[in-house]
């Protein structure tokens, strides 16, 4: 019975346990890969590394010079744009000041016209008072003249 159980266990492990076979297959695959492709892959990687290093040596200084030139151009354009923006702002301020000055001038003209009207009205009042005063003085003078004429007669 023991022999049957051992045989059944052996059969069961061979049928259901595939780990030893899979391990052997993996080792074979890795060995084949390393022998056939390993050298070819490492040579390809070395060549690629050399190409990248050469490109970095050649491209980097050129790119730095181009970047420096482009930054200089951008800086000049930015300065020109700032200058134009300042001129536009200055024109707006001048236009606003001109508008304000025109409004102030209009107000001053209105005030001056009102002042002249008031002066004319005051002049007329003074002229009227003067005319009344002259009239009263004339009447008094005539009365005094009459009184003087009565005394001398």
Task: Summarize, please.
This protein is mainly α and 153 residues long. 97% of the residues lie in helices and 0% in strands. The protein is built from three helices and no strands.
Topology (elements, then pairings):
Elements: H1 2-16, H2 19-36, H3 38-152
Give structural notes.
- By secondary structure, the chain is mainly α.
- The longest helix is centred in the middle third of the chain and has 115 residues, at 38-152.
- The chain has helices at residues 2-16, 19-36, 38-152.
Q: Bin the strand percentage.
A: under 5%
How many beta-strand runs? 0
Low-confidence stretches: none
H/E element sequence: HHH
- Specify the biggest β-sheet: none
Q: What's the Cα radius of gyration?
A: 59 Å
Structural class: mainly alpha
What is the helix fraction of residues, given as a range? over 70%
Give the overall silhouette. rod-shaped
Which oligomerization state do the chains in this entry correspond to? Answer: single chain
How many helices? The count is 3
Rounded mean pLDDT is: 83
N-end to C-end Cα span: 193 Å
Features of the shown structure:
153 residues; mainly alpha; 3 helices
């Amino acid at each position: 019975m023991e022999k049957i159980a051992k045989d059944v266990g052996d059969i069961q492990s061979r049928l259901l346990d595939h780990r030893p076979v899979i391990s052997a297959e993996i080792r074979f695959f890795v060995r084949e890969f390393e022998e056939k492709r390993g050298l070819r892959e490492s040579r390809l990687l070395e060549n690629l590394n050399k190409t990248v290093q050469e490109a970095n040596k050649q491209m980097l200084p050129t790119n730095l010079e181009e970047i420096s030139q482009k930054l200089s151009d951008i800086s000049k354009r930015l300065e020109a744009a700032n200058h134009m923006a300042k001129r536009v702002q200055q024109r707006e301020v001048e236009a606003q000041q001109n508008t304000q000055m025109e409004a102030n001038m209009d107000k001053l003209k209105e005030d001056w016209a009102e002042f002249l009207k008031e002066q004319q009205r005051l002049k007329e009042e003074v002229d009227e008072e003067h005319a009344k005063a002259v009239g009263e003085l004339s009447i008094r003078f005539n009365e005094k003249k009459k009184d003087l004429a009565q005394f001398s007669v």
